[in-house]
Specification:
The protein has 408 residues and is mainly α. It has helices spanning 6-31, 47-55, 86-105, 115-128, 137-146, 149-152, 167-170, 175-197, 207-219, 233-243, 271-280, 282-287, 303-313, 323-332, 335-339, 361-382, 391-402, and strands spanning 65-66, 69-70, 154-155, 158-159, 249-250, 253-254. Strand 5 and strand 6 (253-254) form a beta hairpin. The termini are far apart.
Length: 408
């Protein structure tokens, strides 16, 4: 073997180093390439785009309203309160009510939706469920007195003068502004209120909605809670890390002074109800603050709306399930009658897995919307009753359809 000279050895190591570095850069670049360039099973919906489709190109608002805006033929979709898992709940509701919707259309062709459009609309409908129900101003007046608010605060001509008049907070009828004011000032009120009325008042049920309605009526503002599109989950995550994570964890990440606030924690998803939770727990949160002088962190602008949207978003996830349970659901709900026991396809229905991309909630909902009328007609011809699905069925069905072992 020839012996390399020192110069040749030097050049050899330079070339080797360059090749190794290039290889490393290629690997890192591949691992960190932008999300759109990677193959992804999931399409993440954008509520703002869903709203544009709902009220615009897809004409959903001809029949349905959201917060009163839209048609009256079908239910107002802002009144929905998604169960868990939220995506499974939305898909199951769409499936269960599809025959009624198609009958209502009376032969008119339903608007075509691709997976991306379906994802946007589902995200919008989920966020539409975060709207507060209108409160009762008369009941709110009773709450204002019963909870001791009138001892210190005034609204219009009612109440005391030990603390600021609440009319300026209520003038806009903005539940987020109300929630922010209650959070930022609660720590200063704990001592005086407890001394004045002997206890820290607790809000239950719709009492906070009613109080906001009463405050809005006396402040010259509307009683609506604001746009359901307000707030950003992405910004909320940043705020949560900066101001909440020292005490609260999400999926085990964060502090443990306060309760875990992940998707399994039962938190309300509307501004008024969230304000009630913050108020009810204010003394405990203040007592567990890092230092008495530090108190709880102030939230400015839309930060509290952002935090709420972030916490709500944690419950909007792709449902998990069991392929074994999914196979049973597939049979018991009658899907196997047309598609075969293993979803292999029959003369009455196509194979549901062709070796392409895996099923997701969005793709399942899109397939239903696209092929549902033909499926319903075939079911009626065969005398098969349209099956009813539970939210948890969706995850099991998707797991079954995506499991290669169940296709044999």
């Amino acid at each position: 073997m020839a012996v390399l000279s020192k110069r040749q050895q030097f050049l050899f190591w330079i070339v080797a180093a360059v090749l190794a570095t290039a290889g490393l850069i290629t690997i890192v670049a591949r691992e960190h390439q932008p999300a759109p360039a990677r193959h992804s099973l999931y399409v993440i919906g954008i509520p703002e785009k869903g709203a544009a489709l709902f009220f615009g190109a897809k004409h959903c608002s001809i029949c349905h309203a959201v917060n009163g805006a839209g048609g009256r033929v079908a239910p107002d979709l802002s009144g929905i309160h998604p169960g868990t898992p939220a995506m499974g709940w939305l898909a199951s509701v769409l499936w269960n009510h599809a025959p009624g919707m198609w009958r209502q259309m009376r032969g008119n062709q339903s608007p075509r939706l691709n997976q991306e459009e379906m994802a946007h609309i589902l995200a919008f409908l989920y966020q539409a469920g975060t709207a507060d129900r209108p409160g009762d101003a008369a009941a709110g007046k009773r709450v204002f007195a019963a909870k001791g608010c009138a001892h210190c605060h005034s609204l219009g001509s009612e109440g005391g003068h030990l603390a600021p008049d609440l009319s300026h907070v209520a003038a806009s009828g903005d539940a987020f502004a109300w929630m922010r004011a209650m959070w930022n000032h609660a720590q200063a009120m704990v001592g005086p209120i407890t001394r004045e009325i002997g206890q820290w008042p607790q809000f239950k049920g719709g009492e906070m909605n009613d109080l906001i309605a009463y405050a809005g009526a006396n402040g010259g503002g509307a009683t609506a809670g604001g746009s359901v599109l307000r707030g950003s989950a992405e910004r909320g995550w940043q705020v949560f890390q900066a101001k909440c994570m020292a005490c609260h964890a999400v999926r085990g990440n964060g502090g443990h002074v306060g309760p875990e606030l992940g998707p399994d924690h039962d938190l309300p998803n509307t501004p008024a109800q969230f304000a009630a939770v913050l108020w009810n727990h204010a003394p405990a949160m203040l007592a567990h603050a890092p230092t008495p002088s530090a108190g709880t962190p102030a939230l400015e602008g839309d930060e509290i709306a952002d935090v709420l949207k972030f916490l709500v978003s944690l419950r909007y996830f792709e449902p998990v399930g069991s392929p074994f349970l999914g196979e049973r659901v597939f049979t018991e709900r009658g899907c196997a009658r047309c598609h075969g026991a293993k979803a292999e396809g029959t003369r009455e229905g196509p194979r549901l897995r062709s070796g392409g991309d895996a099923f997701t909630t969005v793709s399942l909902a899109t397939a239903l919307w696209s092929h549902g009328p033909a499926m319903r007609a075939r079911a009626e011809r065969l005398g098969i009753e349209w099956p009813t699905l539970e939210p948890t069925d969706i995850g099991d069905l998707i797991s079954f359809l995506n499991d290669p072992g169940r296709q044999k």
